[in-house]
Amino acid sequence: MSLPKNFLWGGAVAANQVEGAWNVDGKGLSVADVATYKPTVDVKDYKHQVAVSTDTIQAAIADKTDTDYPKRRGIDGYHRYKEDIALFAEMGFKAFRLSIAWSRLFPNGDETEPNPAGVQFYQNVIAELQKYNIEPIVTLSHYEMPLHLSLTKNGWVDRSVIDDFVRFAKVCFASLPTVKYWLTFNEIDSVTRHPFTSAGIIPDQSKHLEQDEYQALHHQFVASALVTKLAHEMIPGSQVGCMLTKLTDYPATAKPEDVLASFQANTMNYFCADVQAKGIYPPLITKFFEKNNIQVAFGPDDAAILRDNTVDFISFSYYMSLISSASGDVEMTSGNTIVGGKNPYLKTTEWGWSVDPVGLRISLLQLYDRYRKPLFIVENGMGAADTLTADGKIHDPYRIAYFRDHLREMIKAVDDGVDLLGYTSWAPIDLVSASTSQMSKRYGFIYVDADDLGHGTYDRYRKDSFYWYQKVIRSNGADLD
């Protein structure tokens, strides 16, 4: 078994989790800049970890420090990106997935002209990547909506945000014409799990939250289709992908009722990719809307826009699998911003995430069979507590074991016939966790000397896994030992 010679090995990050510099060079506040570190809340309680209200947002705006807001400081990537990219190049990266902070280009999100300093920053980053022949994979929206649009329009609930986003994307395409691979919305299906983080919806500002979530999601679908068309026009040969949270679900037992419950969970998970890859709303989803009194308003041209501008490939995150039971009598566990049934046959991480390498192979086969489009694994990894030794070493055999097992199953899926463009780990360097805003939940092959309160030198250290991944890339996946 072997991978294509042009397979894109690399890693993935988000601007709001690495850049910091939240108030530097004209950047405006984003929804990430008001996310608080909550040490008194169980790290497995994602619902309360990401909870916000109008009052908490206003308190965050009034607070001009980064003490309780770790994403305001990130890992100082804004100033240290050259150092980090050099380390990625040392590992042998062929690709690097990053995102553009919308509020760094348009501080409020609705300006007519971009912030020149923000444009220049991303041009510098892309130039640095290309200096090392690292292919940039750029996400336009990765949980970084300008806070102003959230406060004034309740985020993506307002259709006018489509125009704001298209204007932002047009500047990105014009400023970064050498970028070939683009993603529109990170984990677009997450709007219904954490509406503020993903779509800028403030729950206490919504009279019918579920209705607003699906309306916001529709507006993102339309925006995604429009910018897909725009990218193809402005950057000939460019490839645009959607990005799904692959929440692979198994029935808890062979009981038909459990199989049905699992089918329904997977159907909802596929919904967003169905719209973006096939260009239509699936009949089972429209029936779901009807049964739940959800009325998604379409513009007169929306159906044609979705139909005529489908994505070129499907990208996704995969961290764990879940199980479903019709009776609900299963133990629950946490996952990627979700809580679901715990599989008794699988081990879990310190943060409660089930470890299921075979589930990655299943996910690849399911997605490729369903869409017949190239796939791209753009997030996969595990959060763990690492220890920096006195001599500057980090021994992380648990991380190596996790990746080794998942990559083996990935290669099997390619051997089964899956067309896979590449694999970017989450994350190649320690960063601030999306859900819990922790630094101690470490993902990287590179250790960053900072704790949950921001204390530390922020110096970078190579972990044992750094050298292991370097070998994996050098052998194009042939040597996983």
UniProtKB/TrEMBL annotation:
Signal peptide: none
Active site: E379 (nucleophile)
Domain of life: Bacteria
UniProt-listed Pfam families: Glyco_hydro_1 (PF00232)
One GO BP annotation of this record: carbohydrate catabolic process
Key word Hydrolase present: yes
GO CC entries: cytosol
InterPro entries hit by this protein: GH, GH_1_N_CS, Glyco_hydro_1, Glyco_hydro_1_AS
This protein's record includes keyword Hydrolase: yes
Keyword terms of this UniProt record: Glycosidase, Hydrolase
Molecular function per GO: beta-glucosidase activity
Family membership noted in the UniProt record: Belongs to the glycosyl hydrolase 1 family.
PANTHER family, alphabetized: 6-PHOSPHO-BETA-GLUCOSIDASE ASCB-RELATED, GLYCOSYL HYDROLASE
Protein name listed in UniProt: 6-phospho-beta-glucosidase
The organism of origin for this protein: Schleiferilactobacillus perolens DSM 12744
